[in-house]
Amino acid sequence: MATDPIMPSPNVQDAGTEQEERSGYRPIDEYGVVGNFETVALIGRDGSIDWCCFPHIESTSLFACLLDAERGGRFAISPTGSFETNQRYLDRTNVLRTRFETASGRATVTDFMPVPGAIDGAENAHRALYRKVDCEAGPVELDILFEPRFDYAQTEPDVERSSHGVVARGDGEAAFLTSPVGFGVDKGCAGTSLTLEADETRWLVLGYDREIPVQPDENQRILDDVVAYWRDWAHECPDREACPVAGLHHDLAVRSALALKLLIHDDTGAICAAPTTSLPEDIGGVRNWDYRYNWIRDSAFTVQALAELGHVEEAKEYFELCLSHCSRGPPTDIQPVYGLHGDDDLPERTLDHLSGYQDSAPVRVGNAAHEQRQLDVYGELIVGVHETTRYGAEITDRAWAAIRDIVDYVCGAWEVPDVGIWEVRDDPQNFVYSKVMCWAAIDRALRIVNQTDYEGPVERWHDARAEIEETVLEKGYSDDLGSFVRSFEADDQLDAATLRIPMVDFLPPDDERVRGTIDAVRDRLTTDEGLVDRFEGDDGLPGEEGAFVVCSFWLVNALALAGRDDEARDLFEDVCEFVSPLGLLSEEIDRETGELLGNYPQAFSQIGLINGALALGDSAAHGASRSGDNDG
Hints:
Elements: H1 18-23, E1 31-35, E2 40-44, E3 48-53, E4 61-63, E5 74-79, E6 84-89, E7 96-101, E8 106-112, E9 128-137, E10 140-147, H2 150-153, E11 158-162, E12 165-170, E13 173-178, E14 184-186, E15 189-196, E16 201-208, H3 216-233, H4 250-262, E17 294-295, H5 296-308, H6 312-327, E18 337-338, E19 349-350, E20 364-365, H7 376-389, H8 397-413, H9 432-451, H10 458-475, E21 477-478, E22 483-484, H11 512-524, E23 547-548, H12 549-561, H13 565-576, E24 588-589, E25 596-597, H14 603-631
Antiparallel strand pairs: 1-2, 2-3, 3-4, 3-5, 5-10, 6-7, 7-8, 8-9, 9-16, 10-15, 11-12, 12-13, 13-16, 14-15, 17-18, 19-20, 21-22, 23-24, 24-25
Helix pairs in contact: 4-14, 5-6, 5-7, 5-14, 6-7, 6-8, 7-9, 8-9, 8-10, 9-10, 12-13, 12-14, 13-14
């Protein structure tokens, strides 16, 4: 039953970890995520929603204590006093359960957001977050704190009781918390204490700009429908041995796909790099970026990952998005990154009133990368388009005209220095990976000509492709290092991106220069735990950064392609040791502590895991084929 309304402490949490006691912040890997294809909420193991933007991922935040524990705002449900806790997803869904155990009993909070297509109802009915509280053994006393802070906590909202709960208003927005539990209200917050006995259930529903009634039977039906939706969508293989990601890490690959699906915007098909901003790459440092946008290269890598797991519609949606970017203007106007709704202006600014995760300032919104020249993007774009045609997508006359323009542009622009895949904030260089991806853009256009009735200036394209190849092999490979290098200017430095050379067919995987690059990366960029740094040298920014997760998976792929199956499998298993308990990954990993760093969950990292698992599956299949041939 509900007790008299009170205001619980704004720091509702369990005994927690040493890091949490030290800083007031939870480790990044102690968060789960739920979403509705428009936005995503991060929910800690203490039952606190610490980050959520409404109505879209790139909108301003409603809860942001992830970036400022004191003033950011949260929506917390957790036991009074000490407790133990763990989280898990309902199998093959994005429905999250946080389980609490106290001295007197056990309770579970089930968090989910309805998704379009999974429920019937009014327009925007999915813009809600449902929290179901079940008491399994009691009594359990719970503290509930509703502390909304609109517009990145720049103002304190008006919070007042309503006929069905609490409503918060500010900056032209409104958030409605409906619940049968009575709340006390004070200074922009609402809170109460609730005691549940065994088998008792309570629902709390947070609606954006609309009040959603608590109707237990209807709420349960919505939950059942959401669970059914996810299980229908999630990859399932009747024949586990024939699955492209067969093996010990099959379930991790499926979880990565489920996480990626949450990052795909329903209206546009755009893929968000991560649902957070400014989670630091170095605790206390300034490498804090806003990743709530659509990077073309991230999206291109996603095509194979999703399509190979049977999610062809998402791959085709990406195809349409790529073509829209190709056709929106001259090639010089194509950006590395766009808003999820196609916005091309993403001005970068700092929110100086927020202290940042573990005091890692500045907190940034927007991203200046939209103004950069990154030549590899053209290759990622055309490779992605070509890859999607394997799954039934068709190139229209208009799309081919745009592709031709891009390839013609690349034939003349590939020699120009750029800032590269790693978006350095320093002087442009002739980055080897950028040149390779310019080669790939031309190569895939030539393949399209060979595979279709479309025509192009193939002689000029052949000449340009050959010239790029010759130049990269002459200036981008070091005989002294026995490896491809970072740039023509930095010919004594390595770049993990060159591991992708055999993946785009620039050279075969058994080429001695590819083998040498793999060995050099293993020797100079890789830790004993299998964590791989992005590159050697400077990028124009102060401070350190963690090892880059996707680079470790690129190394897995390169090893598998080279036939070094045991090394690839061992490395893959080593890297998977750093996956969060829920199967999620951030952008980077601290080499010393193993803690996750950077924005979370990171699409690039989850894609890397899937493609690494696919590479191991292909390797195992080829190995079995070779064995069968030998037996014969």
